[in-house]
Amino acid sequence: MSTDHGHTLPNPGTSGPQPVIEVIGTVPGPPPIPAGAEAMALRITLPPGSPGAPPHRHAGPAYGYVVQGEIIFELEGEPERVIRAGEAFWEPGGDVIHYRGANNLADTEAVFAVTLFCAPGQPILTLVSPEELAQRKHLRAPQP
């Protein structure tokens, strides 16, 4: 994701400070959105120390922004990383397993907003069975 864009939005004829547009992240396109997908905006709050949802996948992509705190984020094939307030994240959805989306802090809530593009008739997330996790273990990045 690129973050090297910044813009001001001139609004002639008005008084007061002008809006500032800051691109937080981008995803090369077009992203793989399922045909007929429904876009939904979610706000997710993880209590202090919350492990988040167990390993799962989404039927379509998700684009999110951490509003408060820090989350540990791990997708299949990528090392886990910490995403802090003010940073964005991308998840392609589909067959990719989302291993972790946990609160990285033991004393503060983590809050993130995410736009999810759900395939028609599919749940927001589908849990991955222990058997499938074992079968796909070779696709997971090494753990720290």
Order of helices and strands: EEEEEEEEEEEH
CATH topology description: Jelly Rolls
Give the biggest beta sheet: 4 strands, antiparallel
By CATH reckoning, the class would read Mainly Beta
Helix content: under 10%
Note the gap between the termini: 23 Å
Poorly predicted ranges (pLDDT <50, ≥5 residues)?
Answer: none
> What's the architecture in CATH terms?
Sandwich
How many individual helices? 1
Proportion of β residues? 35-45%
Average pLDDT confidence is 89
Widest sheet, order of strands: 3-10-5-8
Whole-number tally of structural domains = 1
Can you characterise this structure?
Helix content is 4%, strand content 38%. With 144 residues, it is mainly beta. The chain has a single domain (29-139), classed as Sandwich (Jelly Rolls), CATH 2.60.120.10. Strand 6 (70-75) and strand 7 form a beta hairpin. The protein is globular, with a radius of gyration of 17 Å.
What's this, in brief?
The protein is mostly beta strands and 144 residues long.
